[in-house]
Structure formats: C-alpha cells, structure tokens
Amino acid sequence: MMNEIKGRILAYSIAGIFAGIYLFFKGFRLLWQKRLIQNIPTSKIRSVAMGLVELQGQAIANLLLTGPYTKTPCVFYHIIIERLVRDRNSSKWVKELDMKTDIPFFLQDETGCVVLDPRGVETDLPLRYTKIEDNRRYREYNIMEKEPIYVMGSAKKTDSIDERIHKEVEKRIKETIENPEEKQKLDVNKDMWIDEKEWELVRERITKQVSEEFSRAGEEFKKSERLVPEALKNVIIGKGEADRRFLLSNKNERELVECYKSRIFFYIFGGVVLTLLCLWIVLSYKFQKGGI
Fold first, then answer.
1. Are strands 136-143 and 122-124 parallel, antiparallel or unpaired?
2. Which residue from 43, 31, 56 is spatially nearest to 257, judged by alpha carbons?
C-alpha cells in the first residue's frame, strides 16, 4: 500500500515538473505580448495603416446575434461546454465544444468605422454566464453592442466584390468537376461529352447564383457600412497571414497590461516553484530508493 502511494506521488511529481515548465514559458509568452501591447501605438480608425495595429472603440453590429445561454443581444460570443470526467483518483473538466462566432462586425471610434473579422481571434472577455447541469458545465463570454473594446490585429486589404464573386465561381466550378455525380449532370444532351456550350451554361448559372447571394449579403451590410470611410471600404481587421497576433478584449490597454502583470508573475514564479518542488520530490525518492 505504501509503495502504491509513493508511486502515485512520484507520477504526480513528474507531471508537475512538465506542468511547471509549461507555466514558466507561458509566462514569458505573456510578458512578450504585454510588451507588444505597450509598444504599439493606438491608432485612430481613419488613419489606420496596413499591418499590425492597435485600435480601441465601440462594437457595432452588422448582424445582431443572441447569446445562446444569456439570451442577450450581442455582436460576438464564445461558448464552452465541458463534461466532468471522474476516475478513481481525480476528476477534471474535458471540453466537448469550444466555439466562437465568425460573423463580421464593426469597430467604431470618433473618426470612423472599420470591419472586424473575428475568425481565429484570441479573446480576453468577461464570463457572462456559467451553469453546471448534471455532469456538464456551460459557459458564455460575449461582447454586447456599443460595448467598448480593444483590438490588436492586422489591417489588410480585401478583394473587391467582383474579385470575390470570380473566386467563388471558380471554386464552385472546381467542386462540381471533382464530384462525379454533379459533373455527369452537366452533360445536358447526354452525348457523354461536356462541350464548350455546356460549360458556358454551367458558368452562367453558377455566376448568377453567386452574384445573387453576394447581392443579398451586400444589402444587409450596406446599412452599417455607411459609417466606414471611403478609404477603408476594402479594409478589414483580422488575423494576418505573416503576423498572426490577433487579440480582442473588452478591457482598455491599461487594464489589459495590469491584468497581464499579475498573470505573468503567477505563471513564471509559480512555474519555477512547482518545477523545483516536484524535482526535489523526484530526486528525494530516487536517493531513498538508491539507498535501500
């Protein structure tokens, strides 16, 4: 029995060493990110330049969403569902769903407005809902309309409507060609050959379909887009291709930096203490075993 307890302590200590090292390096990553936040000057939307930028303003909805659990109107939400898994010695929460909305919305300050594409964003948002039911835990984080937000991401040019339509048409034609059943439908006269005229009919049909879809989406977008300066009509803030740093928070820069300070201290100092403590336990066990 005693050997079993010692073996369990040893296993936990080895795991603790790796956990401490992970926390230590995570702390330095947060330190680097904190310095980046402090060093990048906050831009006004009207004068935003291409590349990594830092912006602050209000969140304005393009399409107003409803939080799945809070049932409140919002422009963005992040939900997490976890299941409690128990074994003989411990219990832990395991993620079953981790979902962030990808619907674009607007960031507005006193100089103008710009489109925000939240795909791939890292968030630092308040917990607006939590509930434990049976062995599952439900959480929701969100941004409400007109709530002040901070964004660090890449300002980049987007394709024009015509370019986006062309790319979508080509993509759908390629998908049709790669699908044997769909490709067979293109042979209208059933002569076992898709001639130039049949290809032209397909292209016209797909182009019309895509154009109508973009037109409907564009009408919904125009109401909010009137706030966007002309120079920023084809600009979005999102995750960059080369510089992939993209952070969204409802805290301002000063609050973010203060929050990072406490977390950095916890991760670096805590990581060192945990690693050294667990290492001491492992070495003590080895020496005791060697002395027997």
1. unpaired
2. 31
For 90-114, what is each residue's pLDDT tens digit?
788 899 999 999 888 999 999 888 9
Q: Average model confidence (pLDDT) for the chain?
A: 82
Contacting residues for 231 by C-beta, under 8 A, at least 6 apart: 46
**C-beta separation of 96 from 81 below 8 A:** yes
Six-digit token string for 27 = 């702390």
What does the pLDDT look like over 236-266, one tens digit per residue?
899 987 777 899 999 988 888 888 888 888 8
- Cβ–Cβ < 8 Å for 82, 71: no
Decide if 54 contacts 253 (C-beta within 8 A).
yes
Q: Which residues pair with 54 in a beta bridge?
A: 42, 152
% of the chain at pLDDT higher than 90: 28
Q: What order do you get walking across the sheet with 136-143 strand by strand?
A: 91-100, 76-86, 136-143, 127-133
Other CB atoms within 10 A of residue 66 CB: 11
- CA distances to 17, 61, 123, 151, 162 from 155, in Å: 40, 19, 18, 11, 21
As a whole number of angstroms, the distance between CA 164 and CA 158 comes to 9
DSSP assigned state of 18: H
Q: What is the pLDDT of residue 46?
A: 87
